[in-house]
């Protein structure tokens, strides 16, 4: 069937197409001049198959904007000298963000994604020192070796896992967090995080289409970011994509109903609902 996802890497073209849709808006939150090229016709077809009414594009636009701002702030204010984007997909931040020339930016992904991206962006010049590493992150031995090599050449590194953790199970996320925590220079980690409340029937249609292409949603911990605390990471900041969507004029469908009834909802459940989908900035625990 046209637009079907055959493996998890295909979701990168879907995400790129969402970025292209945002870029085309007159009031775009960001501009990604490479998104359409990277998404190709397959990205458009996947979006039609999974989300034909584009009901989920708001979350990708807001997620991208919030992450952009966080990354720029950490680089300028926290002395981040290395950014490591795990399962980078078709992200183009090294080309489209105003980054210091001296910043080392490392993209890690599977061979197919890396070669496709290199071919499409061959003539483009990144704004920082861009390196690409071909690695299957499921290979824990190879992963630890690469992390150790990056650690040795970094002082203050920021790890990005955008759109990755949800496709890993609890045990895989625990092991990844442990491997990252072992590296002395890995100070910061920014990721999107889903609440278990989001894996309700509301997203069932989209989830079944992803699952049929070997890309099921797996990770939405009931304990939220506290999942990472025993493994060496604490929440430094939380950015609710629901609350940010209101500020940025990208409100999801049916948010009007939530706004209408939220004054009647006690503060506890209200806070829980505000945290159904967000960006978490994790900081290394100091013992």
What can be said about this structure in brief?
This protein is of the alpha/beta class. The protein is built from eleven helices and seven strands. Helix 7 links the parallel strand 4 and strand 5.
Question: Could you describe the 3D structure shown?
Answer:
- The chain is an alpha/beta fold.
- It has one domain: Vaccinia Virus protein VP39 (Rossmann fold), CATH 3.40.50.
- The chain has eleven helices and seven strands.
- It has helices at residues 11-23, 35-51, 57-77, 93-96, 111-120, 140-152, 170-181, 204-211, 241-247, 255-261, 267-274; strands at 82-86, 104-109, 129-134, 157-161, 186-194, 233-240, 277-284.
- A seven-stranded mixed β-sheet has the order 3-2-1-4-5-7-6.
- α7 (170-181) links the parallel β4 and β5 (186-194).
- α1 (11-23) crosses α2 (35-51), α1 (11-23) crosses α3 (57-77) and α6 packs parallel to α7 (170-181).
- The mean pLDDT is 87.
Q: Features of this protein?
A:
287 residues; alpha/beta; Rossmann fold; seven-stranded mixed sheet
Shape: globular
Quote the CATH topology.
Rossmann fold
Q: Which CATH class is shown?
A: Alpha Beta
| CATH homolog superfamily | Vaccinia Virus protein VP39
CATH architecture: 3-Layer(aba) Sandwich
Q: Taking all residues together, what is the mean pLDDT?
A: 87
What is the overall number of helices? 11
Outline the secondary-structure elements:
Blueprint: H1 11-23, H2 35-51, H3 57-77, E1 82-86, H4 93-96, E2 104-109, H5 111-120, E3 129-134, H6 140-152, E4 157-161, H7 170-181, E5 186-194, H8 204-211, E6 233-240, H9 241-247, H10 255-261, H11 267-274, E7 277-284
Parallel strand pairs: 1-2, 1-4, 2-3, 4-5
Antiparallel strand pairs: 5-7, 6-7
Helix pairs in contact: 1-2, 1-3, 3-9, 6-7
